[in-house]
Amino acid sequence: MPRNFNKYQYETSPRKIEPEYAPKKNTYKGKKSTLRKPEEKVKKINKKQQKEERRKHRRMIMYVSLGFAVLFAMCYRNAQIDENFEEVQDLKKELALVEKENSQLELSIESNLNLSNVEQQAKELLGMQKLTNKQIVYVDFEKDDHVEAAAESVKIEEPSKIQKIINTITGLFK
Predict the structure, then answer these.
(1) Whole-structure pTM value
(2) Nearest to residue 18, comparing CAs of 6, 37, 4?
């Protein structure tokens, strides 16, 4: 091809220079060998490989699911522990409040239990009065204790050796 270097080029990009030779393409690149294995052997090998791949895939799925199950169990157990801990803390707070209330009630009971307060409330609220000598009655109980022995005593006799032998012999014939 003759080149024309004298022509004026109106574009801004330079002119592309064509190479002087064209590289040859490898025509044997895509061809397969003419010696082929029988199709049965190829299928058997492929089936074996497929079975092995399936087995590996199943194992992987099993291990991953087992890992997720273990992680889920751990998370669930930790959540239960947290809930139980919160419940224990709530019960401790409630116990502290009940103990405080109990101590306050004990103090109020102790302050109200003196004899003058009880007497005053009995007179005012219930209308009670102190006893006079005419209202008091004395009762005399006998102080002797009487214990009677049992009239009959039960005594169990143990059979003699001869009696035991006779009982065993008669027991055999019954």
Answers:
(1) 0.37
(2) 4
pLDDT in tens, the chain (174 residues): 455 556 665 666 666 677 676 767 766 665 555 555 556 566 667 888 888 999 999 999 999 999 999 999 999 999 999 999 999 999 999 999 999 999 999 998 888 788 888 888 888 998 888 888 888 888 877 777 666 766 666 677 777 888 888 988 888 887
CA 55 – CA 45 distance, rounded (Å) = 15
Enumerate helices (H) and strands (E) in the chain, giving the number of each.
Answer: 3, 0
| Amino acid at the residue 107 | L
- Sequential DSSP letters for 61-78: HHHHHHHHHHHHHHHHHH
Residues 42 and 50: their CA atoms lie apart, in Å, by: 12
Q: Which tokens in the block code for residue 96?
A: 């502290």
User: CA-CA distance, 102 to 154, in Å (whole number)?
Assistant: 58
Question: Taking the CA of residue 104 as centre, how many other CA atoms within 13 Å lie in the half-sphere pointing to its CB?
Answer: 6
How far is residue 37's CA from residue 45's CA, in Å, rounded to a whole number?
11
